[in-house]
Design brief:
This protein is an alpha+beta fold and about 375 residues long. It has 2 domains: about 210 residues, no CATH class; about 140 residues, no CATH class. Strands 1, 3, 4, 5, 6, 7, 8, 9, 11 and 12 form a 10-stranded mixed beta sheet that branches. The protein is elongated and about 105 Å long.
Length: about 375
Amino acid sequence: MVLYGFKSEIKSKIYSFSGHLIISKYTLSTSYEETSIVLDDSLIHTLENYPLTKRFQPYAMKAGLVRNLSGSRPEETSKANEEIQGVIFKGVDHRFDTSHFKKHIISGRFPDLSKDGYSGEAAFSRKVARYLRLNTGDEVMIYFVQNPPRYRKLKVAGIYETGLEEFDEKIVLGDLDLIRRINNWSDSLAGGVELFIKDMEQLESAENDLWNKLGVDLHVDKVTDRYIQIFDWLNLLNRNVVILLGIILFVAGTSIISILLILIMERTRMIGLLKALGGENKLIRSVFIWSGIQLIVKGLLWGNVTGISLGLIQFYLKVIPLDATTYYMDHVPIEINTPTILGLNLLILFLIGLTLFIPVSIISRVSPVKAIRFD
């Protein structure tokens, strides 16, 4: 539950800033600023009618320098005005999923993008806000990197925090129309389109399909490729799960073998007596196997009750905190996946059940005469 919760939380934060698939102009440039693409009827129709499309949103990015115009306290004003921070301004429109992003807002609100012209509001990360001594309601001046330079005055509508340095160190969220105005773009132009699909298991096939459906001048990029370091790191967690379960299964298997060996030792006379009365080895083995299975079922029952109860306590009360600078979140995340829990229980029951045949195999070697005399 913890490892699944951790992976789910990290992925959710990435998807708050980027779609599952990113469609942009094909270019060899490595700059944050994209060459514009046309949001024509053909592109929109293709995306809307693609079976895996959940939703999509246009965006554009532009590099800039931010300077604080108002300190949070009078004595800080002069110091704040001296600080300048480089950022990447990401412009979005009304199609941006603000409800999903809302959980990352720690102060204020998401910028209002419904105004005519362009909105003069923006959301800054907590890290940038601390460096520039910004609070919600403060005004900043952003100088966009271009020739000639252009600048705009913005108001801090909200402050967010994801814990991911890739976003918190540089991304400022604002209005897409502002970038259009700065770049002299029409309303039909954008830096790219972020597409969200319904089934992440089909991400690879969706990428290939869109490559074939879209124009040759457009590039389709998976989010797993754009942030490959993070997703490779998350994939390593799967290996940790396998190692952890392997250790648990080894300990559980060793324990059940030891318990059954002790039970067989304590019931040696009974085994000899049953054999003397004509009991077959198969019958006697089944007695101990069923005893072992009862122990396994009781252990699984109490283990599930304890584990799920602790998971629910952490899920709702968040009693175990974390250092956000190290773990990208301020509490231990929990994800309760019912099919996975049921499958894990069945796997353990099956594998540990197989180990029962190891200790009971010695029953066939027990001599009735020696067993009855056994002390």
